[in-house]
Amino acid sequence: MKYYRPVRPFKAISFDLDDTLYDNHPIIKKAESAIIEHLNNSYPELAQLTQKQWLLYKDLIVKEFPELQYDVSLWRIKTLTRVMTIHGIPQFKAVEYAKHAFTEFLKLRSDFTVPLESIQLLEKLAESYPVIAITNGNVDEFQIRLHDKFQFILKAGDGLKSKPHADLFIEAARRLNIEVSDILHVGDHLISDVYGAQNNGAQAVWFNPNKQSLNGARLLPSVEISHLDHLYKLL
């Protein structure tokens, strides 16, 4: 546990989800592979679609519609629709099929169990502070059984730009009836979490289990931790 600056009093704790409360990398990798297989098997027109092609389509559509970068769910649905129409599925069917495929992807990317240590931590912290989640991702909180561990979960999209933009932090403070500066945000990503929180007035705890370097960081966190249970020391 490393302190880079004194931790000011705070009134609420916010958590990133993916790669903070659980290791998301293998989950997403498996889900991305499985959804391509699902598309190959479910739609004859997509039988030859590859992972490489999918990533190219995804990159092209966000270049065409840059606002999609702030909403990963809508980005995926729009990409699915475009891929299907390019491969010969009529537009009116592609819209419907894309929604079904997205639902399948959400099931796949939410097919895991959150570590017990993370659950216990959230429950303990909630005894002393409002605990919320602020995420750029689209995990199904009900499927992973985190829906009742937070006062609320804010996800990027529906008019709210993703971290590091201020939108999610401002909305969280509004709902809690506090200032953004009253939030202590915990997350793994130096840009979206650390820079996002501190550039918008909140304090940041950087979760760094892999001992990444801070060289070149735009802002230092208040605290760096390598294990989530270090947060107990802040109570």
Brief overview, please?
It contains seven helices and seven strands.
Provide structural commentary:
The longest helix has 19 residues, at 91-109. The protein contains 7 helices and 7 strands. The protein starts with a strand and ends in a 10-residue tail after the last strand. The model has no long low-confidence stretch (mean pLDDT 96). The protein has helices spanning 25-42, 51-64, 72-86, 91-109, 116-125, 167-176, 190-199; strands at residues 2-3, 12-15, 131-135, 153-155, 183-187, 203-207, 223-225. The chain has 235 residues and is α/β, with parallel strands linked by helices. The relative contact order is 0.18. Helices cover 41% and strands 11% of the residues. The chain has a 7-stranded mixed beta sheet with strand order 1-7-6-5-2-3-4, covered by helices on one side.
